[in-house]
Amino acid sequence: MSGARKLSLTRRYHFAASHRLHSARFSEEENLRLYGKCANPHGHGHNYAVEVTLAGPVDPATGMIANLGDLDPFVDREVVQAFDHKNLNEEIAEFRDCVPTTENLCRVIYRRLRGFPAARLERVRVEETSKNSFEFAGESGEARQDTP
Ligand code: NI
């Protein structure tokens, strides 16, 4: 359907989690220089907001891109329940060998959500603070292919 790609749906979710920005690739001095107080060994927390954007087509019968009644439990299971009140470095498998910057958090969330069966995942946007937000729309070829 012409123009269907231009329609998108964005839904907002929240979770709280702690992290520490520290890479084993760098010395303690380099970590401190790179990440500043975010490299504090005891970590710190954020109230993250996550925006999940799905793209059309609109189902002519329902008038919807996807039913929020399907999206909410999917995001809740894959992201909100998985990450809420967790230490990202210690408790999330994807961050065992990957610094939990919000850039990387965007990618991890995108990869957890791209299998949503009812619509195509367009983009994930994560707000770390009121000043910082990050967006990820997949590497080329990474998005789930629409089945004909
Ligand atoms: Ni932080």
The biggest beta sheet is recorded as:
5 strands, mixed
The percent of residues in helical segments reads 25-40%
How many separate structural domains? 1
The CATH topology is Tetrahydropterin Synthase, Chain A
Number of strands: 5
* CATH homologous superfamily classification: 6-pyruvoyl tetrahydropterin synthase/QueD
Order of helices and strands: EHEHEHHEE
Protein model, in words:
With 148 residues, the chain is of the alpha+beta class. The chain has a single domain, classed as 6-pyruvoyl tetrahydropterin synthase/QueD (Tetrahydropterin Synthase, Chain A, 2-Layer Sandwich), CATH 3.30.479.10. It has four helices and five strands; from the N terminus they run βαβαβααββ. Strands 3-1-2-4-5 form a five-stranded mixed sheet. β4 and β5 form a beta hairpin. The chain is elongated, with a radius of gyration of 17 Å. The structure holds nickel (II) ion. The site of nickel (II) ion has 4 residues, from β2.
